[in-house]
Amino acid sequence: METVRGLVDAARRVQTEWAARSPEERAEVLLRLRRIVADRADSIAWVIQSDTAKIGAEALFEVGVACDYLRYLAHMAPRFLASRKAKTGWISHRRASVRYEPYGVIAAITPWNFPFAISMSTVNTALAAGNAVVLKPSEHSPATGKLVGELLAEATELPDLVKVAMGDGQTGAALVTAGVDKIAFTGSTATGTKIMAAAADSLTPLVLELGGKDAMIVCADADVQRAARGAVWGAMYGCGQVCMSIERAYVAAEIYEEFVEAVVAEARQVRSADGPDAQIGSMIGAFQREKVERQLDDARSSGARVLLGGRAVDGPGHRFEPTIVVDVDHDMAIMREETFGPVLPIMPVEDDEQAIRLANQSEYGLDASVWSRDSERANRIAERLEVGTVVVNDHLINYMMADLPFGGTRGSGFGRVHGREGLREFTRPKAIVEDRIALGREPYWFDGTGSGEESISALLDFRHGRRLRQKMAGGWRLIRNAVR
Ligand code: NDP
Question: Which of 368, 380, 401, 462 is the most buried (most CB within 10 A)?
Answer without folding.
Answer: 368
